[in-house]
User: Which sequence fits this backbone?
């Protein structure tokens, strides 16, 4: 069975602080994908990153960075020097690709509030 | 490239009434998904189509929910009759083989 756990329900930080959002996943598949999505107050889920299970290289994109560790089944997301615009709900998701088409499993989300 | 289009954005109905949501996926995306997102929770898959065939509808309350994807392009999700607990945002998404899900803006349903 596939499962994604985001243990942090809500996080508040002061602007310019760094913040890490945790994501732990469970799967028996050897090939899978991990994603982060951002859901601002407007409601639309915005794709941030996709990672393949065979690529553990960490990634940095501007103020965003992702730490993928298969040994601990974690895919954590760090925002450096947070800004008010980063306030949103962030979802981690696990994807798999059987012959019937991609399947996705979402965590319950972490609500991030950046205080000016 | 146009994104996933959904309508209506907002709908308020009385319980036991019916409602329909429409989705037009990104052109060329074979897989279409309907998710239900209740306030404070993550998206929950209701139904997944591959072209015009149903791949997974195991979490669709079939006594009141139905969905179709005619001609493998746009899709309609219907609720009849609606219950209070159906109040949620209904998200449509589509994907290609690469795997990213592209979401529409969602249709927010309030059942009174």
Assistant:
């Amino acid at each position: 069975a596939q499962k994604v756990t985001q243990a942090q329900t809500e996080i508040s930080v002061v602007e310019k602080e760094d913040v890490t959002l945790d994501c732990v996943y469970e799967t028996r598949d050897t090939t899978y994908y991990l994603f982060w999505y951002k859901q601002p107050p407007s409601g639309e889920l915005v794709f941030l990153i996709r990672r393949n299970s065979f690529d553990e290289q960490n990634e940095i994109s501007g103020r965003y960075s992702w730490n993928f560790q298969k040994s601990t089944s974690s895919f954590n997301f760090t925002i450096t020097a947070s800004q008010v615009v980063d306030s949103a709900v962030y979802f981690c998701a696990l994807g798999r690709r059987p012959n019937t088409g991609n399947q996705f499993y979402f965590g319950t989300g972490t609500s991030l509030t950046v205080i000016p | 490239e146009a994104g996933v289009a959904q309508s209506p954005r907002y709908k308020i109905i009385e319980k036991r009434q019916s409602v329909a949501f429409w989705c037009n996926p990104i052109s060329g995306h074979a897989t279409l998904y309907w998710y239900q997102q209740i306030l404070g929770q993550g998206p929950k898959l209701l139904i997944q189509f591959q072209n015009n065939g149903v791949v997974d509808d195991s979490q669709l309350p079939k006594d009141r929910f139905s969905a179709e994807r005619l001609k493998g392009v746009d899709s309609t999700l219907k609720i009849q009759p609606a219950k209070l607990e159906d109040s949620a945002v209904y998200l449509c998404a589509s994907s290609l083989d690469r795997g990213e899900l592209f979401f529409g803006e969602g249709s927010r349903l309030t059942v009174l």
Q: What stands out?
A: The mean pLDDT of chain B is 92.
